[in-house]
């Protein structure tokens, strides 16, 4: 988002409805290269929002405006493109199809009231898209389908429709079927409800051959619509042969879509303009308005007093920042969905952000003032007079607002329940290229973390590395490019894993710290016994000193010196763990013994014991759960074995999926987010958490 304009773009006034019933928020979902951004361009051009449609290959589309998106020729972030169709404002929310940017997709789902799945006619439905469909179903989001790119080689509408029905269920039914010319090219659509042909010459009744072709699908569609009708006599009348009025079917279609019982399908050939008007009609007439969307639960900023709001423009203000970008001209731009109340320019708001501290977003509450409201059209910001419940808008210069924050009235501060965010699983260690880049790196990291909640920043106190946890390789590339565009030259380095060591066997150690240099000297002697403990036991310190060999006041000094040496380690700064250290004997001097002397003696005794016992290097092992389609199960199991993983169980799930649980060394998981996606054609996902430290094979210790 960057350039600011006021008034109209492409001849169409900036839409700013006052009634939520006049709004449709639709998120476009689908695999990368399925045609989502191209479809948005066609819809923008058809509504005269822009003079003509841009092209992804030329880098001229409204939604893909970032340099990285233009360079890669694919969407990398959420973008909003509002259009007006009749009396309805449609907020088209374009989201990336690549798995690395699932955080942007989740934000789009949060901002929307319905989802439009865009499936390329030559490709069908992949496992990742199937998973998103079921995620939408779980929260009751209405869904429709566009079968796109009908002009591409190998395009097969019937195959794609069948693929959608296999993946999404029998509720997926076509509203239109493609009509082809004498050369087999798609040149129009046949409406199943109306029985009319829609092509470049206008609308006309279908001929006998077309009516016969659409008879079966038409009957199935009408029966599915009537099944959701509140008029119980409608089915009997239809089965008796009565022709049901089109307006009745359209009204019941919206009910069926809103309830999730029917998912309409529209074929589209954006290059030829086929299906574009029908998609707009379907969204405006068949998709629900924000009035039918159950709002997220709200509390006060401390998480108390939960309550539900309604999408009432006169209700208490509750809006949420669903996306943040940083523009070189206007600074931070916050895209907000207003759930309740009305946002107005020059008004105060309370900004609440809680629950994301683990990702680098400390809890915060600030009062700010909204200067202007904008209707975003890709990178263009067009000033708007207000933003009512159900609508989307962009705000600038709200300095404390981050993605996921709640905007509310300062007199009634609220906090919206956050949406689920995926866990970033690809670590990338970064360093400033030169000392002069360090300030720019810190500044830009803060901006990135504020904008992208799928990114996690970790400063590892043991390896002393700055690690960015990303969703995948493409996400990492975009993050690094954004850092460099912000003026921070950065380098990457291999991610190091924090190791531990322990004793191979019990041992004894003698520590003698005696120095004389005039005046008071230093005198301390101690003898310790060290034995290894089971994994995860930590450090225990005990004493069996008899006869006051070590005065009582100096026993804590020995412990302090031993523990400090354990933390420092005795080789390469690797901490020692899972040991019991027992002080058994020692000597003291009435004048020269001191706290510092016995700390030094304790440390020397531990080093001596370590040399005698020998050390075992321990590496962190993570518990991993891989969610994988059954057809890729063998490849994943073999790969886990090659990573020194130990499979501890498999759990079959519905729909041909399996969860594989394994314990895998953390050093083998550094690039697993990339590898498991490659093994599964992008469909697999996994989670990980620390399980334990286990001995590292001797051959690998020497490599380290």
Automatic annotation (TrEMBL):
Sorted UniProt keywords: GTP-binding, Nucleotide-binding
Domain called Tr-type G: residue spans: 21-291
Pfam families: EFG_C, EFG_III, EFG_IV, GTP_EFTU, GTP_EFTU_D2
Residue span of region Disordered: 291-316
Keyword Acyltransferase belongs to the record: no
CDD domains documented for this protein: EFG_III, EFG_mtEFG1_IV, EFG_mtEFG_C
Entry-linked PANTHER family: ELONGATION FACTOR G-LIKE PROTEIN, TRANSLATION ELONGATION FACTOR G-RELATED
Protein name per its UniProtKB record: Elongation factor G-like protein EF-G2
The species this protein was found in: Saccharopolyspora rosea
